[in-house]
Amino acid sequence: MKIGGKGRYPFGPLRERFRGCMLGLALGDALGVPFEGRREVRGDQVWRAAEERPLLRYTDDTHMAIGVAESLIKCGRFEGRHMAETFARNFKEEPWRGYGPGPPRVFEKIEAGVPWDRAAETIYPGGSFGNGAAMRVAPLGLYYCRDFKLLPEAAAQQSKITHTHPLGIEGAVLQAFAVALAALHGPIPSAGELLARLRTLTGEEIYRSKLEEMESLLGEPRASAVALRLGNGIEAFNSVPAAICCFLRHPGSFAEAVVEAVSLGGDTDTIAAMAGAIAGASLGVEKIPRGWLAKLENKDYLDQLAVRLWEAALKGADGS
Ligand code: F2R
Ligand code: MG
Ligand code: MG
After folding, report:
1. Which residue of 124, 135, 204 sits with most ligand 1 atoms within 8 Å of its CB, as the best mutation to test the pocket?
2. Which band of pLDDT confidence, cut at 50, 70 and 90, is reported for residue 9?
3. All structural domains of the chain
4. Could you say which of 116, 119, 257, 267 would form a disulfide bridge with 279 (CB–CB 3.0 to 4.6 Å)?
């Protein structure tokens, strides 16, 4: 099947890829968080931490992705107001998940009655270009994986709840597409084809040049070169390309993609959450190490959510 083409819809494996994506996102987040802010991390440190920790606890990345999934399941489509209110309600229940500084201020405004598509406008000059909209967008990429016409607009709109800067929005669109292509296609036949598809979505020079640069990093032995050339920071343009690259450098191994994402240092939970979401969507839940899954916080709820999202996507209120 050609990437993004209208091939036969692989019903059976798709369910396992939805599960792989949601659980992979949460695991990347949980495995990355102990190393947040480090300059560089060795792979063996990540493996050891995963083995030694009794519980793999996730952060805001997964907490917000849960909100995206809950809203899509409930509404059967993207509904901005509902998703914004879901984020605000979930934040109130668990404000300690390590949220970025902007979103809680947006939620306050939403609760005060500011419309969902206006609340984020004044938090940062020009809007936020943080990676918060990209880190949570995976369930929407799954939900709209059969509809490449609706997907970019839905990804951009969900971004605007908290992130209105064009660079924050484009990062979320790219991450949503990477997840959608991975879920639809499964194991990727060619990194070049996926990158070419993603390049057609870029309007911003920084993403275009980083996607171009990525091809030369696929055979690069040193992971540190990925952080050096693509970034490892909290800004969407310094983390979304790095996450996609970690997946493309290890397209057949969920564990290696996620461990490498953490090893880049910087915004480790978020880069690993995004790499884990793409790798899980491509490879399916069966390729995620069982020992890690067994220790993941709220594993059963995340798994149920993935299956319910898959069922909702099959009904496809506006996607089929
Ligand atoms: N917040 C964190 N990590 C900090 C440590 C948390 C601590 N461990 C704890 O437990 O409390 N991680 C989470 O935040 C990131 C996502 O952030 P989000 O949602 O994008 O937030 P925000 O505030 O919109 O943007 C983040 C930063 O980006 C810079 N920035 C954004 N737009 C800007 C603009 N227009 N001009 C200048 N700077 C801009 C600012 O520095 C923002 O603070 C994820 O890593 C998640 O894991
Ligand atoms: Mg986080
Ligand atoms: Mg983070």
Report:
1. 124
2. very low
3. 11-318 (1.10.4080.10)
4. 257
